[in-house]
Amino acid sequence: MLRRLFIEELAASEGEVSSAEVVRVLGAIERLQAVLERDGAHQFTSRLSGPDAMQLLIEVVHDMRSPLNAILLLAEQLRSGRSGPLVDIQTRQMDLVHSAAFGLTTLADDVIELAHGGNRLVDERPMPFSLSSVLKVVCDLVQPLATEKRITLNASGPEADVRVGHRVAVGRVLLNLTTNAVKFTEQGSVTIACETRTRTKLEFSVTDTGRGIPADALPTLFDPFRQRASRNEYAFSSSGLGLSIVQQLVHAMGGELEVDTVLGKGTRFSFVLDLPISPRVSGAW
Predict the structure, then answer these.
(1) Could you tell me the pTM of the whole model?
(2) Is residue 278 within 8 Å of residue 217, measured between CB atoms?
(3) Which one has a higher pLDDT value, 89 or 24?
(4) Angle between the N-to-C axes of helices 88-115 and 131-148, in degrees from 0 to 180, rounded to the nearest 10
(5) Which helix (H) or strand (E) holds 4?
(6) CA torsion 136→153→276→176, rounded to 10°?
(7) What are the respective helix, strand and coil percentages of the chain, to the nearest 5?
(8) End-to-end CA distance of the chain
């Protein structure tokens, strides 16, 4: 603002102004700007490291969620054709817009979840739910990203579909792991599988044919806000929140998240949950 006002005054001046004076004033303005920037950065850093740092972060994230939800709503309306039919390329573009906005919304949810411990189960108690429905929702959300990268996305579930458990947590874990798998797979496939181990125990897995995870990255793979050595290092996101919360949710459901990986060949995340067959299905109701 000072620079603009000075130039306006200079242009309106009828007298002769020396070049040295112009340079001197502009230099002073630049020095003032540098001081203000350092002061602002210091205040911001102080608040981030202060006792209300987490509250500040949550407030910022909450401010992000409203426009992101609006983008999701508009994308849904356009995809459904409520504003008129779309050609194929427009449908593909809107699918990507929806997936990207959903990914950002998930990251915002991860931050808020971390502030509450990262292991909250939205379902207060286990309830009957359809595994095939959860798998379909996950595939529908991730498919546009897989299509864009020309990756095959597969899913399979057990014969006894309706189980008793925490549907929201299961879906969130599978969505995070599947999105992660697609992100780090350049060619080949990503497979979501749910296989019966005993009458009540099921093993969930997400397997990709991606780059694999270096051995030195495994010890800190599930640490939130971990510092990455390079931009190419394996991580769900720059913050590392996704995998951290996935692990905590799996623990909260009584499971253990495991990872098997081979560099250059792919990675498999898996966990086993005790999900009884719903009495409504088994004939007890």
Answers:
(1) 0.67
(2) no
(3) 89
(4) 120
(5) helix 2-12
(6) -90
(7) 55, 15, 30
(8) 73
Q: Which of 204, 207, 212 is nearest to 249 (CA)?
A: 204
How far is Cα 185 from Cα 152, in angstroms, rounded to an integer?
Answer: 10
pLDDT digits (tens, 9 = 90+) for 226-276: 545 444 444 444 444 678 888 888 998 999 999 999 998 999 999 999 999
Q: In what order do the strands lie in the sheet with 189-196?
A: 152-156, 189-196, 201-208, 266-274, 258-262
Report which of 279, 270, 246, 274 is spatially closest to residue 110, judged by C-alpha positions.
246
CA angle 57, 58, 60 (to 5 degrees): 65
The 3-state DSSP class for residue 166 equals: coil
Alpha-carbon distance of 73 to 67, in angstroms, equals 10
- DSSP, res 218: G
Predicted confidence band of residue 42 (pLDDT cuts 50, 70, 90):
low
Confidence (pLDDT) at 80:
76
Neighbouring CB atoms inside 10 A of 11's CB total 7
DSSP SS3 for 261:
strand
What are the tens digits of pLDDT across the range 123-174?
678 999 999 999 999 998 888 888 888 999 999 998 888 999 999 889 989 9
**88's tokens:** 């194929």
Q: Which residue has the higher pLDDT, 221 or 157?
A: 157
For residues 77 and 126, is the Cβ–Cβ distance under 8 A? no
Greatest Cα-to-Cα distance within the chain, rounded to the nearest angstrom? 98
Query: CA–CA separation, 153 vs 151, rounded Å?
Result: 6
Our measurement of the distance from residue 197's CA atom to the centroid of its chain's CA atoms, rounded to an integer in Å, reads 30
